[in-house]
């Protein structure tokens, strides 16, 4: 079948790539950050607020939506886009990542047997079931059902996961029936370069519209993540989008972009936002800190988001987060998602201008400066 | 001092009144519903969403803001309007209503000694302190510090509360210093008509820009509330706004309007909204009910709010509320606040058209119909 999405490379700078993913629901400039709408809502934001901060493609979680309201309900209601009123491109994961973090798993070649967290009902998640659920949900991009080993895991366990991932990918391809969804394969291999290479070879054997690097964001840390991405990204075809799953922090994100990753997703901006951790180009900080009690500035004086331009002060937002007011979660999530989009846009512009390496080190110099608070205050002349 | 607000009666229909309250921050058509921004935020809504649903004047709670972030912080940040970015008129209560519901109170003529819920620190709330806090907060309308007896309470206890309410009102008037805030007196008297009359006489002895009926919404129920309002409202001057505190449900609200009340506040629209209880002119219902699982309609097909016009289905909102997603609280709160504004606007229009009694019974016939769900489904031809 003809792929419902395609990738156009616009410009390379080293290995870093600026491009576009064309979808049936519009074009997505890459590299792109995808906010996570776990249960068909990016926590704390309306779809209009999401569009307003510059989101172009949104992720939702198969595991959570299978649990509630159920994929049959979503299908009956017209699919995920209609259900959550997001007209742009969407991506669903396979459900595997969440399932592999559950206790009392039984993994066989057939699939993964587990008990749903809150309901206790037993489910056997298979490649076929994951495809069926994702077809019911109806996202534009769907992910293959893979085995994601924990970290750390033995070479043997990772090799077994590789074998199943390859086996299951074949079954995913067989099982799917919709031609309007793009299926991405996922490369596993843990922290072992030769197993990454073997998995990449197995997965790219299939002509798919995109490929992902999975098995990361499982506790391996920045250094190992860096070497995995550095080693694995070049093994993926240049004419397809490359998606690094579940990453992450700004420092991780830029390393991934450097090595040619095009798509990333993470709950960090919203999860951190709800507890008052604020991302800025001058570093991240906790707005709940005592020293913001009487702070009249917006979260980030250089940000163009609603929260920062409307006049909400750090003092007010500190109060809202401290008292667990909903509006605090909304304002901080909105700002943080906007920060990630600004970061990706800035990275893209740097690639197009052939200055990604300089941008990367300039960003880190600003972002990781240890004296952020003082510098910031000084800069404002207070 | 000249009152910073004034009331203009536009039209009477029986005792029901349509008018305007002129404030330094704009004109408020009455009768008016005031949403409650307990901690300087109407829960779940941005100030722009609040304005968009038609709110004209917002209440905030002195007790909660004294606790956190503290009135000194609010003052330092430019006052409550600037702090929460609400440019329209605001009203703060005296702190008394919350305090009287706390355990281990010691009430004397001096004031009320209590321990702050979460911090445990001892506070002696006096008329003078209430005025000082409300001046720091800076609302347009501030409330006298009164003694609100519980329900039920003995005639003797209510008489004592009356005496203190009168004593404290004199001290509030003495203590205040700002000329740009309108101080309202509060009538107590419990469920005893002669004590209501005595309190009304005591309070209206002072020439104040507005008067409130307090000591309600303490568990007395619709019948007693009705007789209190029927008896007390006519004792208040016709050329001043009358404010019934903490009311309430649509059926209570309309009785109050019928008897000449101009202002009401209540947390019901937002509190009920967060748990998925939805107000419509055809009655209230719980969107979490099983029968909305596959319901494609908006919360209220006749509503003009964002939630109802943007395309969010009951099915989706049911899912959001069931999974405690923030967006569910926002969407339902927004709808419910809009419902209350529509109800008050419709009541006002009926008064102006000399058909309030007819409107009142038409509304109740629709709102209290026991077969709402079936009727509703039928009406939609499903």
Quick overview:
By secondary structure, chain A is an alpha/beta fold.
Describe the protein's architecture and organization:
The structure is a homodimer of 382-residue chains. By secondary structure, chain A is of the alpha/beta class. Chain A has 2 domains: 6-266, Alpha-Beta Barrel (TIM Barrel), CATH 3.20.20.105; 272-376, no CATH class. The first copy, chain A, has 16 helices and 16 strands. Chain A has helices spanning 47-52, 62-67, 71-76, 80-84, 96-99, 127-137, 155-175, 193-204, 221-232, 250-258, 268-274, 306-309, 314-322, 326-352, 356-367, 372-379; strands spanning 6-13, 16-23, 26-30, 32-35, 58-60, 90-92, 106-107, 112-115, 122-125, 141-143, 182-187, 210-213, 242-244, 263-266, 277-280, 283-286. In chain A, the strands form 4 sheets. Chain A has an 8-stranded parallel sheet with strand order 4-14-13-12-11-10-6-5. In chain A, strands 1-2-3 form a 3-stranded antiparallel sheet. The first copy, chain A, has a 3-stranded antiparallel sheet with strand order 7-8-9. In chain A, a hairpin with a 6-residue loop joins β8 (112-115) and β9. In chain A, α7 packs parallel to α8. Chain A is globular. Chain A starts with 5 loop residues before the first strand and ends with a helix. Residues 374-382 of chain A have low confidence and may be disordered.
CATH superfamily of the largest domain in chain A: Queuine tRNA-ribosyltransferase-like
Distance between the termini of chain A: 62 Å
Principal-axis shape of chain A:
globular
Q: What count of helical segments of chain A does DSSP give?
A: 16
CATH top-level class of the largest domain in chain A = Alpha Beta
CATH topology of the largest domain in chain A: TIM Barrel
- Spans of at least 5 consecutive residues with low confidence of chain A: 374-382
* CATH architecture tag of the largest domain in chain A: Alpha-Beta Barrel
Strand residue percentage of chain A: 15-25%
What does the oligomeric state look like here?
homodimer
The major beta sheet of chain A can be summarized as:
8 strands, parallel
Rg value of chain A: 21 Å
């Amino acid at each position: 079948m003809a792929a419902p999405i395609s990738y156009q490379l616009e410009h390379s700078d080293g290995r870093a790539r600026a491009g576009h993913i064309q979808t049936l629901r519009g074009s997505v400039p890459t590299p792109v950050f995808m906010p996570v709408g776990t249960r068909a809502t990016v926590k704390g934001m309306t779809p209009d607020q999401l569009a307003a901060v510059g989101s172009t493609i949104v992720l939702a979680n198969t595991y959570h939506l299978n649990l509630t309201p159920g994929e049959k309900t979503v299908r009956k209601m017209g699919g995920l886009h209609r259900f959550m009123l997001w007209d742009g491109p969407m991506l669903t994961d396979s459900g595997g990542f969440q399932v592999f973090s559950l206790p009392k798993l039984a993994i066989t070649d057939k699939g993964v047997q587990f008990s749903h967290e809150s309901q206790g009902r037993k489910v056997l998640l298979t490649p076929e079931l994951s495809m069926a659920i994702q077809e019911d949900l109806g996202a534009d991009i769907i992910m293959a059902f893979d085995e994601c080993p924990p970290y750390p895991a033995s070479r043997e366990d990772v090799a077994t996961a590789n074998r199943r991932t390859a086996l299951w990918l074949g079954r995913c391809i067989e099982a799917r029936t919709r031609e309007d969804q793009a299926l991405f394969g996922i490369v596993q291999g843990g922290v072992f370069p030769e197993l990454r290479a073997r998995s990449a070879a197995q997965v790219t054997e299939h002509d798919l519209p995109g490929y992902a690097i999975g098995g990361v964001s499982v506790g391996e840390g920045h250094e190992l993540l860096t070497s995995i991405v550095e080693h694995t990204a070049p093994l993926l075809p240049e004419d397809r989008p490359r998606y690094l799953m579940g990453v992450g922090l700004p420092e991780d994100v830029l390393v991934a972009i450097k090595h040619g990753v095009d798509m990333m997703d993470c709950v960090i901006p919203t999860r951190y936002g709800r507890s008052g951790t604020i991302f800025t180009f001058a570093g991240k900080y906790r707005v709940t800190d005592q020293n913001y009690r009487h702070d009249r500035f917006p979260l980030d004086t250089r940000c163009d988001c609603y929260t920062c331009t409307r006049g909400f002060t750090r003092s007010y937002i500190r109060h809202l987060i401290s008292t667990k007011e909903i509006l605090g979660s909304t304002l901080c999530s909105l700002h943080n998602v906007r920060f990630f989009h600004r970061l990706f846009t800035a990275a893209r512009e740097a690639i197009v201008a052939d200055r990604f390496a300089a941008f990367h080190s300039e960003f880190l110099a600003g972002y990781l400066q240890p004296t952020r608070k003082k510098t910031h205050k000084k800069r404002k002349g207070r």
